[in-house]
Amino acid sequence: MHESKKINDVKKILSQDIVVLGDKMTSKDIFDVIEQYRPVLEARFGFSNDDFEHLQRVLETEYVTTMGAGVSLIDPEDVHDEKWLTRREIDWNYWNDYESYLIGENWPTRVVSSMDTITNKILGLLKDPEEEGEWYRRGLVLGHVQSGKTANYIGLISKAADTGYKFIIVIAGIHNNLRKQTQERVDEGFIGRDSTTKEFKGVGLISPKRGMPVTVTTTESDFNKALAKSFGMELKSLNNKFILVIKKNVHTLSALYNWLKKLNTREGLEKITDIPMLLIDDEADNASINTNKPELDPTRTNKEIRAILNLFRKRCYVGYTATPFANIFVNPDDADEMLGDNLFPKDFIYCLDAPTNYFGSEKIFLNDENSEKFIIEIDDCEGHIPLRHKNGDPVLEIPPTLKEAIRLFILSRAIRNLRGQEKKHASMMINMSRFVATQRDVKQLVELYLDEISKAIKFNYKLPIANAEKDLFIRQFKEDFRKEYSDAGLSWETVLKELNDAAQAVKTFLVNGKSDETLDYSAYEKEGDALTAVAIGGLSMSRGLTVEGLTISYIYRNSKMYDTLMQMGRWFGYRDNYEDLCRVYMSDVSKGWYSHISEATEELRAQIKRMIREGKKPSDFGLYVRAHPDTLIVTALNKMRFAKNKSFQVSYDGQLKETHILSNDERLHDKNRELLNSFFQKLISREEPYIDSTGSYLFRDISWETIQEIVLKFKFHKSLYDLDELIPDYIKKVSDILPNWDVSFKNPEGKQPEGSEILASQIRDIGYKETGKPKKPEYAPGWYTGNKQRFSGNSMFAIGLDDDQKEYAQKLAEDADRKNPIFSDFTNARTKPILMFHLLDLIDKKNNEEVILKRAPALSVSFPNSTDFRTVDYTVGPVWLKQFEQERCDSPGEEDDYDPEQ
Fold this sequence. Notes:
Elements: H1 3-19, H2 27-36, H3 38-45, H4 49-63, E1 71-74, H5 84-87, H6 93-104, H7 109-125, E2 135-142, H8 149-163, E3 167-171, H9 176-191, H10 203-206, H11 225-230, E4 242-246, H12 250-264, E5 277-281, H13 298-309, E6 314-321, H14 327-330, H15 335-340, E7 348-351, E8 358-359, H16 361-365, H17 368-374, E9 375-377, H18 400-418, E10 426-431, H19 436-460, H20 465-468, H21 472-485, H22 492-504, E11 506-511, H23 521-526, E12 532-537, H24 539-542, E13 550-555, H25 562-568, E14 573-574, E15 583-586, H26 588-613, H27 618-627, H28 631-639, E16 646-650, E17 656-658, E18 661-663, H29 666-686, E19 690-691, E20 697-703, H30 704-713, H31 721-733, E21 740-745, E22 761-762, E23 769-770, E24 782-784, H32 803-815, H33 823-829, E25 834-844, E26 850-862, E27 872-876, H34 878-885
Parallel strand pairs: 2-6, 2-7, 3-4, 3-5, 5-6, 9-15, 10-12, 10-13, 11-12, 13-15, 21-25, 22-25
Antiparallel strand pairs: 1-7, 8-14, 16-27, 17-26, 18-24, 19-20, 20-21, 23-24, 25-26
Organism: Nitrosomonas aestuarii
Domain Helicase/UvrB N-terminal: 147-325
Protein name: Type III restriction enzyme, res subunit
């Protein structure tokens, strides 16, 4: 019996017993039901232990997966009535169809139920469309990359239509392929028929006789001047809802504005008076685009969006973003401009929770065990395609790690087929260059390699195993299987027999704005088939495009633009019943940046919840994001290409900074050793320190003046501008609310210090990375001491906390579905700042553990979260930019991957 049919038949047998368990069922409840039926399943269906494990995973996904309701940050003084929905008698026709559609698409029932609750809450934050007069509400929904934001806003659109919103605009990114994909989703979930062929689909198959919304955009065409001329009907003459899915492009937006103004505004009023409108901006996180292409200019596009909104007397704007570093906070030149922008979400910020089966950045990068499993280091690419390559540089060969990744993709497709998922899409993503020409070269080389290994499989997979393994490629596949998938519940012999079908199904696609090739998954679905795709591209795949069934990702890009980093993470999403097969290839440096931004994002999400408790409003969060130290990177690289100097406001509220880069100048370390020993002697002569469980010395209630003095005297690597210049100013800035500090001398070895000696910390698991060759003498080289902009582990941040504070940090972690607290949890629990000193031995693990630096002084500075938000001013110029850019920054502002003008 076919595996997927076998599982479906068994689900029918077990369903009655599972349904009676109700909404509170757990994984153990599912296990107990399966065990009850074990003899029947073994006898009737020949179930093995692997089958039982697979069945457990399938049923857990369907019945146990949950999603929290999220939280909303609103202005406590806002007079808006969120309860207007409860007073209206509403026929939820569009929503009921969409809900049925999602359940039919095998969405977990609890997740659909949560979406019902969440979309009601967001809709309640908008205006009642029946309310008279002129009104304007605007908000932002903060989700997660590839977590179902599109499904959420289609749910919101459906309910908005049910309540009386008549005109709906969805802005779906800057690329044709993303707009097309969004149009397809809207066709399925809201319109009910294919906008191009007019065939019923999605919700249209559930209620084919319902009043279908009108649209003039299709999967093949965006709104444009020609379309505007051909569609001369006024909106008020339409009986049905009207929806457009458009690209964020000046030409498109201008054409829409002119059409609306010409045909649909009343004489004398210049406003559309009786058509409540909702605008969904699904590209509200596009902070990093910095291009000289005028049609993509953020200032001009936002101006056009505002002009369209202002044509309506009754309008709402809802931005959707996957990162708190959204352009509405980051892009304006100053705070006044940000708060004055009439796209700023002054009315609400809604923070979505991800479902429990979401495979996201936290699971990959903030869990060391998962990082070891899912991430494979790229350490061989520089000789083939350097990070900093030029347009037109020849690509003669792909690196061995990419060849391995391709083999893993074929193996994973074979395993998924054997798990009954042969009708599910499977994809591999390769993102190595911003240049279209380089992407083409990579595609050709990938196709050559696929041809080689496909032929080897075809000639050998039917042979006796010993004969087949005489082939080099087959031996490589076997080693890859042993290394990565030996715990997948299948034998190598079984997988080998399936390799041919998997390899022959692979198709390659060039995915960029200048390519005619499209990842058209729906075309395969119509034929009852699945696509097995290797997608090669750049920015098009980095922003919003859903890559279905993504299993293997190979990314060799080193952007430091945080929204772009997370958007490149197309591997995030839902990987039900194949999560164990997913792998991400990236450089160690990229892994460090992803880890850092994952932690920063979690910290900002936690900040929203803290602000809600403190009665803050959206503008407070906007100011907090603008002043976040990591925002400096995004804004400076965007805005300083042509400016000599620019001032920024920076806050270290709730932040940690460490000397994660150490100089190779031994004289500098000698001076710091003298400084630390002198400071240690001074403290120990004053009082007896507390020695914690790690053997570290802890001194309490040290004055801020003493802390500032020691930080000012410490000699930092020249790249650490914040510790060298900003932190001392900030210490003084917050001295009235944080007058006293804790100081620790960290000793991770757990040895009791002898007398006044400070023992060196053997940090053997971090290796080292050179910061790069200096371009000028003042750019001193050195070493990274960790790949998250820090060298310390999370447990270190419990130093100085009492038992109640540690317990609170643990509770914060558990509330966020984390097993152990991360840095931001400890920061939220801390009430005093702490300065921690370390002595590091840097050891090159790749070179016979050669000692690079011995007893090199390092420090950590950690500030608690406070209710009194402070900033310091910092002016950066060309020298700062050069120091920063020496760490290899691949800027998306230079992307070659834009759609040609329409």
